[in-house]
UniProtKB/TrEMBL annotation:
Taxonomy of the source species: Eukaryota, Metazoa, Ecdysozoa, Arthropoda, Hexapoda
Recorded GO MF terms: outward rectifier potassium channel activity; potassium ion leak channel activity
Organism in which the protein naturally occurs: Papilio machaon (Old World swallowtail butterfly)
Pfam families: Ion_trans_2 (PF07885)
Region (Disordered), start-end ranges: 1-25
Domain Potassium channel, chain residue ranges per copy: 131-189, 231-308
Protein's name in the database: TWiK family of potassium channels protein 7
Length: 353
């Protein structure tokens, strides 16, 4: 009886402890965090993480830079006002009778104004205020250019906090982008490979004839590099037509922009929305679509990289096997030739004797 009582007491205690641990809110929170972290490292989670990180960065940069006073814009206004005043004074003093002196003085004033404007443009002046520059889609494109390492350079932070946040944002964002690049490349590569193999089998199903008792060795099918190049070419062609129609670029400039962006070079001489002074005409939608185009294009580049690497590995393996078979054949022929020569020499020696 004592043993039964102790066993019952121990079972009740274990049930109570399990129920307390199961209902412990800290354990539930830890379990939820584990599941959330595991989900964020999946393909869907990494994609959602990149988009959320870009949106968070856009909101942060817009909040920091939008309300900051633009000293450069005020300087340009002052230069323009003083230039107009000096031109008026020169016109009044020289009058219209001394045309040579008037042209000399006017050229001096205009050269100073031109030098000031050129210096301001090199430091990021575009003629727009901070509110016009740091709209949400433009900030979204800036966030994308930071953690994808494109760096267009058409929008730059001018405040101290904006530069500090950009440094921290790049340090945390670049590893997230690399994770997205690897995972998205694997997912798209597997999907495209499945489509290619399915289409390949369907196309050969009617043309292949099997004899009775013949066993066909199944060869590993890889996506050829030419198919990857066709996919990238079609994607670049789509971007060329789209940006050419939106930005009034010619097809060469649109193709140039798409290739420069997907290769992560990002000179910044052509950027969608750079010449837009207001948000009318659907410019926000254009910048958002540009964000999606570049982000999806990076995934396609990663897909083509994985498929081309696999194709190269298979071809190198086949080349190695062919070289090995060729060397074996050459070795066999040399051995047979040497044996025949040795046999012929021995036969000649016996004949002489």
């Amino acid at each position: 009886m004592e043993r039964q009582h102790s066993s019952l007491h121990g079972s009740f205690r274990s049930k109570d402890s399990s129920s307390t641990t199961g209902s412990d809110p800290r354990e539930k929170i830890k379990d939820c965090l584990r599941k959330f972290i595991a989900f964020m490292f999946t393909q869907v989670g990494v994609g959602a993480l990149v988009v959320c990180y870009a949106i968070l960065g856009a909101a942060s940069f817009m909040h920091i830079e939008k309300d900051s006073p633009d000293e450069q814009l005020e300087n340009v206004k002052e230069w323009r006002r003083s230039c107009a005043e000096e031109l008026w004074n020169i016109t009044v003093n020289n009058n219209i009778f001394n045309e040579t002196a008037w042209e000399i003085n006017i050229n001096k004033v205009l050269k100073v104004f031109q030098s000031n404007i050129t210096g301001a443009v090199h430091t990021g002046y575009s003629g727009r205020s901070a509110e016009d520059i740091w709209s949400f889609p433009a900030a979204l494109m800036y966030s994308l250019s930071v953690f994808t390492m494109i760096g267009y350079g058409n929008i730059v932070p001018k405040t101290v906090w904006g530069k500090i946040v950009t440094i921290a944002y790049a340090c945390f964002g670049i590893p997230i982008y690399i994770l997205y690049f690897c995972n998205m490349g694997k997912v798209l590569a597997q999907s495209f490979k499945w489509l290619y193999i399915t289409a390949h089998e369907c196309s050969r199903r009617e043309d292949t004839m099997f004899e009775e008792g013949e066993i066909q060795m199944k060869r590993k099918i890889t996506v050829p590099s030419t198919a990857c190049l066709w996919v990238i070419s079609f994607y670049i062609l789509t971007g060329t037509i789209m940006f050419g129609a939106w930005e009034k670029w010619n097809y060469l400039d649109s193709t140039y922009f798409c290739v420069i962006s997907l290769c992560k070079i990002g000179f910044g001489d052509f950027v969608p929305g750079a010449n837009i002074t207001d948000s009318a005409g659907g410019s926000h939608l254009k910048l958002v679509i540009n964000f999606i185009y570049v982000l999806l294009g990076m995934g396609l580049v990663a897909m083509c990289y994985n498929l081309m690497c696999e194709d190269v590995r298979v071809k190198v393996r086949e080349l190695r096997e062919d070289l090995k078979n060729c060397l074996d054949d050459i070795t066999l022929k040399i051995t047979v030739c040497m044996n025949d020569t040795k046999y012929y020499h021995q036969k000649q020696t016996r004949h002489v004797k």
